[in-house]
Specification:
The chain is an alpha/beta fold. The chain has helices at residues 15-27, 38-47, 64-72, 77-80, 93-101, 114-162, 211-231, 235-250, 340-346, 354-365; strands spanning 7-11, 31-35, 52-56, 84-88, 106-109, 173-180, 188-194, 200-207, 256-263, 269-275, 280-283, 291-292, 310-313, 319-323, 377-384. The protein has two domains: 7-136, 3-Layer(aba) Sandwich (Rossmann fold), CATH 3.40.50; 163-384, PPM-type phosphatase domain (Phosphatase 2c, domain 1), CATH 3.60.40. It is built from ten helices and 15 strands.
Length: 391
Amino acid sequence: MGESTETILVVDDDRSSRRMLARALAESGYRCRESASGVEALAMLRQEVPSLLLLDFHMPELDGAELLARLRADKDPASAQLPVIVLTGDAGEESEVRCLEAGADDFVTKPINLEILRARIETQLRLQSLRRQLQQQNAELEAWRENLERDLAAARLTQQSLIPQKPPALPGWDVASVYRPVIQVGGDIYGWLRLNDGRTLFWIADATGHGAAAALLTTLAKLLFHHGSAEHAQPSQIMEAVNNDFRAIFGARSFMTAMCVALDPESGKASVIGAGHPPLIVLREGRAGELIKSVAPPLGLAESRRFVETAIELGPGDGFFLHTDGLYVFSKRKKERWTPERVQALLVDGDGNAQELLERVVRRILPNESEPRSDDLAALVVRRSPAKKFS
């Protein structure tokens, strides 16, 4: 047998037994070191930690149990996790239990059978090798997790910079929004743009997937909407341009749902276009509103087509509610599923400003912010100021 790279420290106060055992193990290919006492063994362990410790249980001054206790309490993981096989002259279950309770990994009773001892040594060395591999894998996994956390934190800051942090300045109108990704970043995004004809385009999009990959698509979505609004005046043309650009990039391998509302703040007239997105909920002062459903497929799936606009008119106190389908995720805790019709009912005769309306919906549907969700949520309420009442 060739010489092993594994080192075994043999600790036994009986000189002849110790040397005979070390010689036999050396002939089996192991590198052996010897110690005549527990105190000496501790000093040697501080200088160099072996691959395995063969420890006589009964020794004067510092016996095997005391040495094991100090070893297992060591702050150095290499010492604390060192494989230890106890050599004992005691037979029976009580002796076995004492050895294992003291912190031994295994034991061999005297007189020692070398074949059994070698087999147990090889077993402990294999287990130690597996532990080291696992620790290495855990260290690599932890490093990967830390890198991922840093990347997600950077992505979160980037995405936050893309999402409007304050409402647009629209005299006579109130705007409120909410964004709750499943993790640090998400696949939902919204925004507003000033069109060349003076209207404001409110838009919202939901990219396929979740996490960082979907967040990258939201970055692209904002760029495409801004690019489309710079080249086109009509919301249907903007949506068509976004669809064509998105499809040209991904070739129908990815898609996103979207909806936009082009609002004239002076007249209250608006045009609505949806592409595979949840319905727009129209709010009406003092009465039930209506749902405007998407008639076009999600962006990026179909070739260039004409997007049909739906016209609405918003009077004093009226408004609209744009949102993603994260609002309709099934709640296991409450065993209920929300629908556009149920959300619409929450907004009927809704008093308060846009922020209060939005908070009412979110509190009712997602009362517990710590409850795990399976989808991102983004929502936007735009409401016209109510007519002044004169006494």
